[in-house]
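**Discrete fold encoding**
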Amino acid sequence: MFYLNLILIIGIILIILTYLILSLIPDKNYPKCKNNKHDFCILIPARDESNVIEGLLLSIKNQSYNINLNDVYVIVEDEKDKTVEICKQYNVSVIVRKKLNLRTKGYALDEALKIILKKKKYDAYFIFDADNVLDKDYFKNMISVYDKGYDIATGYRNTKNGDSSVVAAASSLTFSLVNTLFNKSKCNKHKNITLSGTGFYIKGDIINKFKGFPFNSLTEDYEFTMYSILNCYTTYYNEKSVFFDEQPVKYKDTINQRIRWIKGYFNVRKLYNKKLRKSLNRKDKNYFSKLSEIIGIYPIILLLLYLVIYVLLSLLIYKKYIIIPLLIALAYFILFLITLFLIIKEKNKIKLSLKNKILVLFYNPIFMFTYVFCAIEAFTKKKVVWTKIKHGK
């Protein structure tokens, strides 16, 4: 039993050291030249989103940086969609999709861009979800990043409805984790950030080269992230550019969402890991971004597999039945501390009532632990498809 414990401790230390070393070593992936043209396009996939689209359009109209509403393109699937009527009130452009057999968000963006590019080419393309609402200075703050020459930049993803339920509060903390613990650190070290679905721009030269948006997996954002790492695009996380989105209120919706994320994550890694390994060169300006992405979460998966073996051996050979509740308690305590850190760190950004802060502090470790069951479902389910989550007002 002593040697089992020793191996476990060594494994945990090695994993911590691996991620710590990779996070501390900087890359040298800087913007090549400054941008000085500001002709922007805004893309909004919005199938049956009449409940929420007006909030986003109003926030775009009220930006402190002037936005031409003719350059806002809302993508729908049916001319009779009530979303279209609201768009007309704001004089924004509407694109009605034709290829409805192609269901993912990536296909919607690709179809719309192919139409737009025949008419006009923009200096940058911003992508938002229909349920987003932008802080009035979102574009004003993003312009300074764009002018520095970054190819891709994302803003700070806040929540509209964190107080709607403890599930929504926990879901919102997922993006706080991505931004505060990962993207901010990566950005400070000039590494490639991870895009999460919405609230970012892509430089026009990139879209013009694509002649559309050729990323159509279950997680098109992560697929594009991997492509940006492979091709050494410069990326930036701008926490001053704040936007808000709506989180799932029901636990069942988060399960479907997370199964899709996990399935998409591993599908994308199958597509890109071999390419990343072949391109790996110590002279690469984003060498450590590539190395970090190649390693990914595999050390954590290996640790989980070892824990399963550890528990089985403890039960079958050493009869240590207390080991299971002890490990669960330890895991809960670690996730509790991470949640506490996020709540304290984000206290001036994410607006939660005191009641929900207390509830999510104890609930979020359970929510995070259920990613294990979502992963099992993702691996055992042959086909995972995108499912719509109905948005409120």
Notes: The chain has a mean pLDDT of 92. Strands lie at 40-45, 72-76, 93-96, 124-127, 133-134, 152-159, 200-203, 235-245.
